[in-house]
């Protein structure tokens, strides 16, 4: 179990992580979702003691990371697949970790096989690795100590679709055996596919958290018309509030049948009409991303 | 918690996990010194240059110069130059190559990792020193002139060892302080040189040079015979300025720095 309580980290005036609290449960995959620069990586570095927080505490299984003896045997960490010595071979990277943890050299071969790095690939220097290969090496490095907790920052980054599928199966099996898995991503669909629980972070703050089922369950209707203008007019006529919801569609806070009637009455052709499952989450995520893009302009004007 | 069948609970059971012993951390650091091409060739270069330099001197040196003491100067020169670089790289790679994110995640007590680096580097220093002495002994046996051990005393071994060890420690200290390979290597070679020039050119500074300039204070270590009490004190004072203080400042920095 990973537990963060009121964790805050500031860099000068900039608050990278702002009063963040959440729990990642054993036996479940928790997705840590947010746009780039939202504070995911900083939060994860705080969990493993690489960045000291200004306030709050982070514990793993009830212990501060600092107090876990030989932590590689308990917590598997992948923070940045590129943070490896370019001049070492992939095998050597794993061998150093195995040596530190006191594991047998055999474990290195097992891990290479598990993540699908071949004998000849393992003898190449990390400099010549693709991002996908580095990612696999990083995952092997996190798993080598057979830990009960995994902390992975953007593990799917650089993996091809087959690699993502492989990783999903791997982490799912891991959680099913009772392990705690926390993985971050800036892609909603990636997290949706893997995670049981989700924690949404934006501009350093937790904006939403819960089980995937809870978060995806949103009332309302998703509708995609042939002509957006005509539909907007028709819905306004019927007194139905609708917000644009990406890709030429709209979301309305009422049942699909109500929207269907309004469209039929005005003779608007619809391409799609369905319950808006997950649309709320997607909107919230888009909003977070958009807010972030505007942020630099706003904060300069307002906070000065 | 929610999963009653899970083998792992909400609490980590660490009661049967001993912490990583220091001996293993040192082994890891020793391995890191040679498992990259740069580290490997640094070692090979040190050994190779020592043998080549001693051989050339053995063939072309004057008979009365070909003493054990002089052979030691030749076989030890490449290490005096390159061992500090090894010390620098051992520390700075964790930042320049960003391996610190793994190293300090596997041993969050950073002080222990740093001590492992210091002890590991010193072990290599002692080994390199022994090899230099052995090479000098061999060269003396093969090429030695008349009475080659006449100018050699036991104290010379001690002085030679001090020179090597302070070099490694200074390299480690500069690495810790700057956490950047290029900057640390350049400053390690440039700053003492600039200081030596300043202190030897500016008349007002000349008297204080042996008390402040490390190079000046180390001068007597390169001569034969024992140092005077004053010279030993000067050596200690300048070593404090150039090795111990940067080391402590670097240690302070690393224990607090964010590892990214």
Automatic annotation (TrEMBL), chain A:
Residues 2-228 form the ABC transporter domain. PROSITE patterns: ABC_TRANSPORTER_1, ABC_TRANSPORTER_2. InterPro entries: AAA+_ATPase (IPR003593), ABC_transporter-like_ATP-bd (IPR003439), ABC_transporter-like_CS (IPR017871), P-loop_NTPase (IPR027417). It comes from the Bacteria. The keyword Cytoplasm does not apply. Keywords: ATP-binding, Nucleotide-binding, Transport. Gene3D superfamilies: P-loop containing nucleotide triphosphate hydrolases. Signal peptide: none annotated. It holds the Pfam family ABC_tran. Transmembrane segments: none annotated. One of its GO terms (molecular function) is ATP binding. Belongs to the ABC transporter superfamily. This is ATP-binding cassette domain-containing protein. It comes from Nocardioides marmorisolisilvae.
TrEMBL record, chain B:
The chain crosses the membrane at residues 40-60, 72-92, 113-137, 157-179, 186-205, 235-255. The keyword Transmembrane applies. The keyword DNA-binding does not apply. Keywords: Membrane, Transmembrane, Transmembrane helix. This is ABC transporter permease. It comes from Nocardioides marmorisolisilvae.
């Amino acid at each position: 179990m990973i537990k963060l309580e009121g964790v805050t980290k500031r860099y000068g005036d900039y608050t990278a992580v702002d009063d963040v609290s959440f729990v990642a449960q054993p036996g479940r995959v928790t997705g840590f979702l947010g746009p780039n620069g939202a504070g995911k990586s900083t939060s994860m570095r705080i969990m493993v003691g690489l960045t000291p927080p200004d306030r709050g505490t982070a514990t793993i299984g009830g212990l501060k990371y600092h107090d876990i003896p030989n932590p590689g045997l308990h917590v598997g960490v992948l923070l940045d697949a590129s943070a490896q010595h370019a001049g070492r071979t992939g095998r050597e990277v794993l061998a150093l970790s195995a040596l530190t943890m006191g594991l047998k050299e055999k474990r290195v071969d097992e891990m290479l096989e598990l993540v699908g790095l071949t004998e000849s690939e393992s003898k190449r220097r990390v400099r010549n690795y693709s991002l996908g290969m580095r990612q696999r090496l990083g995952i092997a490095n996190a798993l080598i100590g057979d830990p009960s907790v995994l902390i992975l920052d953007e593990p799917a980054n650089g993996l091809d679709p087959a690699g993502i599928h492989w990783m999903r199966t791997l982490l799912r099996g891991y959680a099913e055996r009772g392990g705690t898995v926390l993985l971050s991503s800036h892609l909603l669909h990636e997290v949706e596919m893997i995670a049981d629980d989700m924690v949404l972070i934006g501009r350093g703050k937790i904006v939403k958290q819960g089980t995937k089922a809870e978060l995806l369950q949103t009332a309302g209707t998703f509708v995609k018309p042939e002509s957006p203008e005509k539909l907007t007019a028709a819905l306004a006529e019927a007194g139905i509030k609708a917000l644009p919801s990406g890709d030429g569609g709209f979301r309305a806070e009422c049942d699909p049948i109500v929207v269907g009637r309004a469209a039929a009455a005005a003779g608007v052709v619809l391409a799609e009409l369905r319950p808006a499952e997950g649309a709320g989450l997607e909107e919230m995520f888009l909003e977070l991303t958009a807010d972030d893009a505007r942020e630099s302009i706003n904060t300069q004007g307002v906070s000065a | 918690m929610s999963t009653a069948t899970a083998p792992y609970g909400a609490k980590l059971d660490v009661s049967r996990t001993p912490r990583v012993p220091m001996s293993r951390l040192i082994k890891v650091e020793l391995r890191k010194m040679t498992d990259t091409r740069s580290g490997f060739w640094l070692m090979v270069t040190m050994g190779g240059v020592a043998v080549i330099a001693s051989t050339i001197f053995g063939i072309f040196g004057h008979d009365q110069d070909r003493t054990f003491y002089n052979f030691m100067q030749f076989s030890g020169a490449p290490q005096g130059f390159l061992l500090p670089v090894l010390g620098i790289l051992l520390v700075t790679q964790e930042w320049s190559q960003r391996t610190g994110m793994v190293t300090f995640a596997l041993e969050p007590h950073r002080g222990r990792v740093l001590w492992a680096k210091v002890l590991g580097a010193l072990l290599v220093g002692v080994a390199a020193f022994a090899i230099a002495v052995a090479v000098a002994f061999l060269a003396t046996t093969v090429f030695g002139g008349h009475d080659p051990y006449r100018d050699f005393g036991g104290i010379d071994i001690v002085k030679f060892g001090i020179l090597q060890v302070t070099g490694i420690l200074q390299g480690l200290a500069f690495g810790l302080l700057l956490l950047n390979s290029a900057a640390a290597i350049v400053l390690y070679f440039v700053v003492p040189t600039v200081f030596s020039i300043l202190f030897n050119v500016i008349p007002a500074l000349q008297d204080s040079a042996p008390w402040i300039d490390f190079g000046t204070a180390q001068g007597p270590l390169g001569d034969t015979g024992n140092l005077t009490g004053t010279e030993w004190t000067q050596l200690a004072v300048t070593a404090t300025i150039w090795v111990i203080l940067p080391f402590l400042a670097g240690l302070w920095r690393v224990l607090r720095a964010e590892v990214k």
